[in-house]
Amino acid sequence: MRIGDICSNNLPSVATIGFFDGVHRGHRFLIDQVRREAAARGLESAAVTFPVHPRQVLQSDYRPKLLTTPQEKLALLAETGIDTCILLDFTPHLASLSAREFMEVLKHRYRIRALVIGYDHRFGHNRSEDFGDYARYGRELGIDIQPAEAFRLPDAPGGEPVSSSLIRRLLLAGDVAQAATCLGYPYFLNGTVVSGRRIGHQLGYPTANLRPDHPDKLIPANGVYAVRVETEGRTYGGMLNIGRRPTLDNGDDRSIEVHIFDFDRDIYHEPLRLSFIRRIREERKFDSVDQLTEQLHRDATAIRALLHATDTAS
Q1: Predicted structure pTM score
Q2: CB 51 within 8 A of CB 87
Q3: 91 near 51, Cβ under 8 Å?
Q4: What is the mean pLDDT of each run of 10 residues along the chain (314 residues)?
Q5: Which CATH number is correct for 2-147, 3.30.530.20, 3.40.50.10860, 3.40.50.620, 3.40.50.2300?
Q6: Is 186-313 in the same CATH topology as 2-147?
Q7: Known EC number(s) (predicted)?
Q8: How far is residue 181's CA from residue 164's CA, in Å, rounded to a whole number?
Q9: 161 secondary structure, DSSP code
């Protein structure tokens, strides 16, 4: 996948536009439509996206929690098979353009000949226009405008289409398994191992404390999770706790701590990736440290069995 802003050798293309947070199954369904259309026309396929959420330009205090950082998003877009990713800086000037003016930019600067528009996508100043307007401008400018189908899971509640907003809601509710179904892959969190209070060592479950690489990356709901842990080029099973450790009087500090099964090396300051498989319970306060330790034994046994079952199923 080529990545660029503006270059003299842009090839005519069929494109789509979006922020593509998470590059989920709905996005991949849309990009598949773009690739098919491009192949039928003998053109390149392209995705037009933005490094920063456009709403952050329009609303300075808006800080959305991201499913993917900019670097993660580009890596996932490359997996879709799209030929080119066009990165646009969403500036105040760009925000002031009407839909027709923006389409002129797409045609003359980026040589876009056809545009596949997502079922719920709006662009142009105030996002006040719709597909009928885009189609009319396309006829005037020589850009073929095509509607994209929405992607819905067969068992989705109420038939709701897969969207980044839906996935954020699932993660904030702790339903990482359903989020993975919508994403097409387990939700993941990249970070660096930092020093902690070493209480896990005292309980018999030493943990790696993770500091996320990006401050705006969405952290799922508090609780205990079965996870896959990637470190030093290998993957391990793990038991993750997100929360404030109420039994240990951790105050208001929220921590991300993972006990890595069958692992005993020092990985302070090393990069680590957590892939969420399932939340097995909510975080809760126990009457004593002994009760907490007993529960950790039960959690570890349950998580090992769950991870083994998922290995067998795959």
Answers
A1: 0.92
A2: yes
A3: no
A4: 61 94 96 97 96 82 90 96 93 90 93 90 78 93 93 76 94 97 97 81 83 96 98 96 75 86 93 98 88 93 96 76
A5: 3.40.50.620
A6: no
A7: 2.7.1.26, 2.7.7.2
A8: 13
A9: B
CA distance 228 to 261: 10
**Chain centroid to CA 242: how far?**
18
**Burial letters 9-47, b for 16+ CB under 10 A, else e:** ebebbbbbbbbbbbbbbbbbbbbbbbbebbeeeebbbbb
The per-residue pLDDT for range 133-168, each reduced to its tens digit, is: 999 999 999 999 999 988 988 776 567 899 999 999
Residue at 152: amino acid letter: R
Separation CA 25–CA 8 (nearest Å): 32
Secondary structure of residue 63 in the 3-state scheme: coil
Q: What letter represents residue 248's amino acid? A: L
Among 135, 131, 111, 110, CA closest to 120: 131
Q: How many angstroms separate the CA atoms of 126 and 174, rounded?
A: 34
Question: If one looks up domain 186-313 in CATH, what number appears?
Answer: 2.40.30.30
CB 14, CB 116: distance < 8 Å? yes
**Per-residue confidence (pLDDT) for residue 246, from 0 to 100:** 63
Query: For 61-105, how does the pLDDT look when each residue is reduced to its tens digit (9 = 90+)?
Result: 888 899 999 999 999 999 999 999 999 988 889 989 999 999 999
